[in-house]
Amino acid sequence: MITFLHGKLVEALPTQVTVDVNGVGYEALIPLSSFDKLPPPGGEVKLLTHLAVREDAHVLYGFATVAERELFRMLINNVSGIGPKTALNILSGMNAVAFRGAVANGDVKALSQISGVGKKSAERIVVELRDKVGAAGAWEASSAARSLSAADQKINDAVLALMALGFKQVEAHDTVRAAQTMLGESATVEALVRAALKKG
User: Fold this and answer.
1) Which terminal CB of the chain, N or C, has fewer other CB atoms within 10 Å?
2) What does the DSSP 8-state code read for residue 148?
3) pTM of the entire predicted model
């Protein structure tokens, strides 16, 4: 299994890249969301990868962030009828935060506007992934839409961490707010989470 590529970017197209890793050129298919984050050709690049093995080919897919690769794998492993090509289209048409928000909120209309995703596929995505994305997806998307200040971003990150640990959204938010009042606005996300866990 090839889990990442780290080397020199030889060529970059909106849907694929070639990376020179110690003299070996690897071609990987990428979503537009990853293309936007690439350095100019000749620059150093690290791409997280997913290797899809088919009878007729071994295809490498590359991603700039962990969130993109996780979303890609979530789609191809859990939603019937969604293969790697459609999963890349989804990542190209909507960023990971917006996608999780759309799934959590059951926004079939937004999902069906992505190239290659019809209404039936969008409905399947919501049904299959809603439990996996959970309330944290909706919270993350709404927070991103509000363009948070640095202090509020720390609260948001701490709330998401607590929700991942099983806290309800309202409970997590109230606990983190109380922790910030006690520790002050300069408190780190880790300190807020630790204080909230002690309090909870």
Assistant:
1) N
2) -
3) 0.66
